[in-house]
Amino acid sequence: MPVQSTNPDYDVHIAEWEMMDDALEGECAVKRNERNLPKPSGMVEAEKIDAAANKYLYENYTNRAQYEHWVRDSLRSMMGLVSRLIPEIELPAGLKGLEDNATSDGFGLKQLFFRMVRQAISHGRVPLVVNIDESGEPYFSTYATRNAINWDTADQGGRQDLVLSVFREFRKKGGDRYTHDCDAVFREFFMLDRVCYTAVRNEAGELIDDERALGTTGTDNRLVKGLPYLPVIYCGSTDNSPEVDEVPLLTMARAALKSYQLSADYFTSLHQTSHPQPWVSGLDEAVELSVTGPSAAWDLGPNGECGYLEFQGAGIEAVRKAMDDQKNAALEAGAKVMDVAGTESGEARKTRQNDQHATLHSIVITVAEAVEQGLRYAAEWKGYDPKQVKFKVNPEFVTPVVDAQVLAELLKGVMAGTISADTYWQYLTTGKLPERPYDEEADLISDERESAGINLDKDDAIDKPGAGGQPTAGADDPTLGNAGAA
Questions:
Q1: Is 287 within 8 Å of 267 (Cβ atoms)?
Q2: Distances, alpha carbon 251 to alpha carbons 74, 254, 409, in Å
């Protein structure tokens, strides 16, 4: 089979992914694809008679249609919630650079996390690849869902693991720095003798980049230890297995597309209703009618008749109601909180928001686990202990509400030394008290008091120098009493 062969699950879901691509790009992309708005039978028959002359019928029909950007707006709202999350990152010393430079285009781990969450929401699948650059530093690459064309699993030491991953890439043609023409190539990762290999082929299957094993290398650039796995993670919306997950916003995209199709009929009907068609009959052959309008008068002759064919639009209201139904379906399926003009109670809205946040919760957890797994691959590749890696995200989307009275009592406790400053700060920033045992809280208080004492001595030595670098005694020194004052 050729290198561009696709996985059967890819063939099943590619239409959904292409629909999501169009939905996110917007109205122009939706209108470019004729499959999104089938031609009415009358237009099909008219084009059979004269395709060139009657092409305008479908063009006008499409131009009047209106695509609502519910999907793009909903994704933006969800990412607004996610953008407030702060990942907790711990890395070995040799991997600290990944925090600010983790992706193939030079962005850090936080930006990688946001990108992956966005794609997991919109397409339900984020292919993530860990690789090593020419200087021996690890980096991450993500692929558009439609470009992860093939994958396979097999028994590896008693476990079902990936043994093949193929990705479509695009390389710019050489010779002209101004051109944007690209050639499609295919990067593959595969297991051979329990070691991961990679190669790049063109559409004819010919090698562009030779096959090479991936793993740790020695000073002589010889492979010391090959990777016993593919450094590829298929992050999904519910888990990180290679199987295709559901697309969270697919229901909304379908509702938006159906509303677009209905709008074509709705606005065409309105246009026809407001533009009645004149008709004439019984005219002599010598009579010519070339001008119409409020300033024109027709001489119909002795036998001529005229009138208007008016489009009654009996089904317009039904179409409009169907469009409203699709909007309601989209609102129920999406994460964007939109004004529904009082038709939704406060409790219903709260329940819907909690459900949306639950969906975001699972996506954020899944993506964070995928990033952490990728960092473990990178650590193992570089010879570090994977257990030293941590990438956690607390998916808390609700805006923190701080009780002023509780905050004041906590401040009193901090001043009295019975509450740690960390507890006070966490409540101030999150609206929640930290969950930890009493012994840990006591240790924090002890550490903070010890640190404050050290800082105090240092400040005194700087701010109140005396002979020999000692603080100068004075009237305000409580250890001297009245004698000091004298």
A1: no
A2: 12, 5, 48
Task: Give the per-residue pLDDT at 448.
Answer: 82
Max Cα-Cα span within the chain: 133
CB distance 125 to 115 below 8 Å? no
Q: Name the 3-class secondary structure at 28.
A: helix
CA distance readout (Å), 120 to 85, 142, 145, 299: 16, 12, 9, 68
Distance of CA 218 to the CA centre of its chain: 39
pLDDT at 399: 64
* The pLDDT value given to residue 282: 76
For the chain, list residues with pLDDT below 50.
335-344, 350-358, 454-486
Which DSSP string corresponds to 50-107? -TTTTHHHHHHHHHH-----HHHHHHHHHHHHHTT---EEE--GGGGGGGTS-BTTS-
Residues 15, 20, 26: CA angle, nearest 5 degrees: 125
Q: Please give the Cα distance from 125 to 232 (Å, whole number).
A: 13
Cβ–Cβ under 8 Å, residues 60 and 94 = no
Could you tell me how many helices (H) and strands (E) the chain has, helices first?
13, 14
pLDDT at residue 232 in the model: 96
Residue located via tokens 């299957």: 205
The domain segmentation of the chain, as residue ranges, is 405-481
Predicted pLDDT of residue 373: 96
Which residue has tokens 């699948």? 125
The per-residue pLDDT of the chain, averaged, comes to 81
